Amino acid sequence: MIFLEKNGVLPFFPGYKKGHDVFLLIFSDTRYIMFRLFVFVAVSAAIIQLMNQFQKNLRARNRDLAELSKKLEILATTDALTGLMNRRTVMSHLIREINRSQRQKKMLAIIMADIDDFKKVNDTYGHAYGDQVLQETAAIFRSHIRPYDLLARIGGEEFLFVIANGAKEDIFNLIERMRVALAQHIVQLPSNAQLNVTSSFGCTIFDPEDPKSMDDLLKTADDALYTSKRQGKNRLSFLK
């Protein structure tokens, strides 16, 4: 090898050295500039590749975490069956709506609705078709309100509406349209059976000139709902 080096066949070959001297010569001799440059570029490229892969994995992980966070938020704030707000969420919104109504001196309607004889649906057809009735009822209710109105399933077959900036007559007309739409809706059941369901409604109005607490408003709306039940169901009752 020394002969080849001396005669120009190899620019330099320190292989006859022993121990760490080989590497020391390679990285110190000026004749190995290109070799050192190649090593530097290769190592740099490998590091850059690793960093790019790390950033790619980090972005993917962040996207997964964002999607998971969004799903958890949806699960925490909505009713899984109907896709409406759940009780806890609508109550927090209701507090804000009452405060806004009082500041702006505008009316706020609180409406409770309960599907009539819902237990018979579950007992006769089973809970799966009871769930279908709840889903279709929720869809009908949602189709009649504005995007910024509040609608929640607050338990079992009971729903809560919060509607702002509406005159009392307009609110009553809205409820009547929902009541009629539900009563005319046909739910398809097994063996081509068909079912009609109805709902009773109870309404009260938050008046900023005579304000009530949230608990009092909910109790009044609930009392109005049970007035509708006692008077024959499938109707609206209003209490101040």
What descriptors fit this protein?
single chain, 240 residues, alpha+beta, Alpha-Beta Plaits, 2 domains, five-stranded mixed β-sheet, two-stranded antiparallel ribbon, 8 helices, 57% helix, elongated
Question: How would you describe what is shown here?
Answer:
By secondary structure, the chain is an alpha+beta fold. It has two domains: 1-77; 87-238, Alpha-Beta Plaits. 57% of the residues lie in helices and 15% in strands. It has eight helices and seven strands. It has a five-stranded mixed beta sheet, with helices on both faces. A two-stranded antiparallel sheet has the order 4-5. Helix 5 crosses helix 6 and helix 6 runs antiparallel to helix 7. The longest helix is centred in the N-terminal third of the chain and has 45 residues, at 33-77. It is elongated. The termini are far apart.
Present the secondary structure layout.
Elements: H1 2-6, H2 21-28, H3 33-77, H4 87-104, E1 108-115, H5 118-125, H6 127-144, E2 150-155, E3 158-164, H7 168-184, E4 187-188, E5 194-195, E6 199-206, H8 214-230, E7 236-238
Parallel strand pairs: 6-7
Antiparallel strand pairs: 1-3, 1-6, 2-3, 4-5
Helix pairs in contact: 5-6, 6-7
Terminal CA distance: 107 Å
Q: Given this structure, which CATH class of the largest domain is correct?
A: Alpha Beta
The CATH homologous superfamily of the largest domain is named: Reverse transcriptase/Diguanylate cyclase domain
Work out the radius of gyration.
36 Å
Q: Helical element count?
A: 8
Unreliable segments of 5+ consecutive residues:
15-19
Helix content: 55-70%
Q: How many strands, which pairing sense, and closed or not: the largest β-sheet?
A: 5 strands, mixed
Count the beta strands: 7
Number of domains: 2
Query: What kind of assembly state do the chains in view correspond to?
Result: single chain
In N-to-C order, the SSE pattern is HHHHEHHEEHEEEHE
Strand arrangement in the largest pleated sheet: 2-3-1-6-7
In percent, how much strand structure appears in the residues?
15-25%
Known CATH architecture of the largest domain: 2-Layer Sandwich
